Amino acid sequence: MKRSIAYMMVGVFLSFVLIACEREEDIPTTKFDVYNVTVEPSYNLATITCSVSSSITLEEVRAYVAKSPDFADAVSVLMVELEKGKYAGIVEGLEQASIYRIRFQVGNEWSSLQGDEQIEFQTIERDKVMPVVVTLPAKDVTYTSAVLGCTMTHEQADKILECGFIYGNDPGLSILKDMIKVCKQSGDGFSASMANLRHSTTYYVRAYLITEVGLVYGNEICFSTDNIFEPLDLGLSVKWGQVNVGAGSPLSCGSYFAWGETKPKEEYSWETYKFSINETFSKYNSEDGLVVIEAVDDAATINLDGNWRIPTREEWQELIDSCVWTSYNGYYKVTSKVNNRSIFLYEGGYRKSTGGLINALFYWSSSLCEENMSSAYGLYMSWWHNPDNVLEMVVGTSYERYIGMPVRPVWNE
Hints:
This protein is mainly beta.
């Protein structure tokens, strides 16, 4: 009985072994073939392209480049898939006039190479032929734009086929995978005006050249576009907001408010005005002596987080006197004469029950008109020719308090 049990146990064990062997034979071995490898070397980098065949989806393909046969000093680059099965990458930090070897890694496995197992290339010797490229710090940065610059120092530069800037939101820029702005060379450098950038965003930039000898990269810099919801320092007595109250961008109107009210509404009239009572006023009148909006009635203070408030008449006047105003289709660009920084004011017009005006620049101030307490001062921008035929900018004096106007806030330090 015991022998029978032992034989039975051996039989079961052998069955498991046979099943395991059969299953092991059924498991396919993963193999990756790399072929059509090409290398375009420069003096300090090399552009590598290859094709990869695989029966499964590839996780990632890396190229390892080294001078030593054991790849102890290897540097690697993540290859970018240009099209199905075709990859490219640029490995940097190489030494000039040096012989290098290449290996490829696919996922966690070293791939096999069809044809020659050893792939070698030699970098170019630099003999005053390759220019030195310096990416300059970004200038005139706004919430959607910036000016990029580059200088080149060289003695016998070969013919430049293309130049420009590579930019993106992550460091380690490559001409193969990131956005490119092609430029025209001008003397010993080139520049580019970048537009349609995202606000409150960090961008990385590096200049590049493509010459008859190869590709040359400049250093990598970074800059951040303005946060449109933070106050902007124009070098004046107060910092100005970059968007209207209730707006999501500088070139939108936002909400309309009657003077001293903190909520937008459908109708703007004396009948709906918060402080209007039988043709008199419950607040900001001759009895209380209030001539500037209090914080509790300030649309900017109530609707925004932080120390925001509506600008006074004097602060609007300072903005007019200390800035250059440029009219565009639907808005004004207001550029400080002090530090050359700019804000944008949208032409949202005004609203009232008997009709409104659009395509004009109206903004409330926090200052009451003491000569006529049914009105308050507001910004109105128009153009006219004076007797000397000089184009000037004029500001309206006061407007009825019930009218709905946009509010551009200032930061109360």
